Protein 1
Amino acid sequence: MIAADLLTYTMELGAHTRVGTVRVCCAVAEHVHARRDVVAGHHALLRELKRHWRFEVREALPDNADTVAFGTLSGAFQAGVQRAELHADGPPVVLSAGLEDGDLRLFGVAGCPAGAVLRPAECAD
């Protein structure tokens, strides 16, 4: 199975779908993101790779009932509000997030630690 297949592979019910707390597809995407030069000519893989975005929080500030996270985005966060998994201390937490001028707004979240990572929750569906 090649990396492109792993990014779209649907796990069977009861199969192991995570590496630690991260979905297998997102773990593969993270590995490939770090080696983009190796897959430069593989357009289908690069398109699929964009769907498995990753946002690493450098700093977060409260904004009324929300939190605005500043950090680094890998992949392509789709327009509008999306469900995201917040990976910090403990098990992942699913929340709503939206991209605003390169920063990530976490709706209804009262804080987020530096170093936390957000990934698409749709991979968990």
Protein 2
Amino acid sequence: MSSYMMTVFLGAKTSVRGSTAPMPVLRVEAAGYHGPADVAFQMYNGLTTEERVKVAEEFAKNVVQWRDEIVADADRQRTAADELAAAREEITRLKAEAEAAS
């Protein structure tokens, strides 16, 4: 087993894909399909099916938790002022539509 620390910055083009043959592998492609900074997570051949499922479930659970934390942070950053500005824009748009219909 290799042991090292690596940081890969993810962006809007990041793709994630997995396969099970010949052994389970999860590929994270930071710059998109077959771009630079690809990372592959592979499981040992010696793992049982149950162990493979456990590893995949742990990975998935933590990725979902990470996503939920990002969403919660985004929600916290949304302010009343932002919502008020959006409401004012919507009012302006609706007024323009009403005037155009008259």
Protein 3
Amino acid sequence: MLALLGATTLVLAAGAWWVLPAAADENNLESPQNVEVSIMDDNFTLKWNRSNESVPNVTFSADYQMSETNSWIQLPGCQYVAGTECTFSFLKLNVLDEITLRIRAERGNSTSSWYIVDSFIPFLKAQIGPPEVHLEAEDKAIKINISPPGKQMWSMDRSRFIYSVVIWENAPRTEERTVTVYPRDTIYKLSPETTYCLKVRAELPLQKKVGVYSAVNCVNTTAENKLPPPENIEVDAAHQNYVLKWDYAYANMTFQAQWLYGYLKQFPEDHSDKWKQIPGCVNVRTTQCVFPQRVFPDRVYFLRVQASDGNNTSLWSEEKEFRSEQQTVILPPVLNVKTTSHALHAYVGASWEPADLHRLPIYEISVWENTSSAESRILQEQTEFTFPNLKPLTVYCFKARAHLLGGKWNQSSDFSDVVCEKTKPGANSRTWLAAGICIVIFSIFIAVCIGKGLFRCLNYVFFPSLKPPSSIDEYFSEQPLKNLLLSPSEEQTERCFVIEDVNSITILEEAKETNGDLKAFHSQTSRDSGHYSNEDESSGGKTSEGSVQEESG
């Protein structure tokens, strides 16, 4: 019995030695390390390192969480993975939303703690993968069809891809050349019956993302066609038309030209059925054709030309990019100037029809006096210009031109012919003229009055009409003549003395000689105004003597 118990105890002890360490390992599983996420197009790859390689039967599982939720969701394709990486894709994932991943180790019912990966935005982390490429050969060209990489990740940027092609002749020591192409494009200037190889990668310049090159594709060009395609396609503008020109080696050929909207080149779909005939460029017998500008509004187009001799037809020429807004010729506007009583009015008329009604011209007009070189300029959308407050009876000259602004290229016409017009007198001119006439009349009136007054003064001074009696004038001959110029109201009142007899005269003379005081003599103030009779001196003397006697009496 004891032996049996001992054996049982030994077995349990042995079993405990094998199980317990395993249980200890299960309870101490370590999380994955060095976890990384890589994205190429729509494919996500999660990689990690195992913490303990010696522990068997360990698997790994991952979850994800979107930024707007708090719940964790099992990551499809990354559950119970025995290796150290898994690949998954989100068919309904918004590539601009932030996402967080976590991963842990599992063995049976035991799990490690979660290893949480830093959150990221898939679009920013993603790398552009290699595009799919299909080639079609011609005699001197290769048509290339490119399928953009990815579907969901780059769904908003498929038309923004730029494709870089590296092409080389499949022969020893040949140089590579790099060209930029559209999703459906043609590489020209190749040799016939020659093998060419190429590889392509996609780029998003704005996001600074450069993709991975595709696998190398090779193709053989065909034998040279009997009729070569037209070459050196050019477009010139003349008045209201465009002139399409090209070169061709053979004579007596018929040509046709087609056009395609430039924006279609951005899309990878087949657009071969969207080419249209250019009006006026069908069955042309010369190496040029003319078509109106209004047919091509301001956009980007592609043009191509084909030659035919009736039985044979050449391949299409190299496609020529044509930017109509850059080629548009703006003719000088028509200028008309009219005069009113208050201002000059200039009217500008367009001599051409804008192809793009969303890009209407702005007019500039310059004005200056005919005798001056200083110009004033006005810029406005309206076609009528008014110039008020100009100098009357002055010649002003005008010239105008048109501008097309707001596009990728700002364009301007030449100036119109100069138009000159003379302003009318106007209300201000008549006012100044009336004022001038009044000033002249007033000046003449003042001159007449001054002349008449001066004449009277001179006549009064040098040619007096009245003269005092000689008996009084003899004693006042020293009175200054300036007193005679005084008006009657300003004349001085002189002191006169009445001489009673001859002896008084003698005494008066003696007093005068000795500057004696005349007040000592009997005297009285005279109020004589100084006016005397024009009669002869004898009669006047008697009258004066009588007056003296009356005063003394």
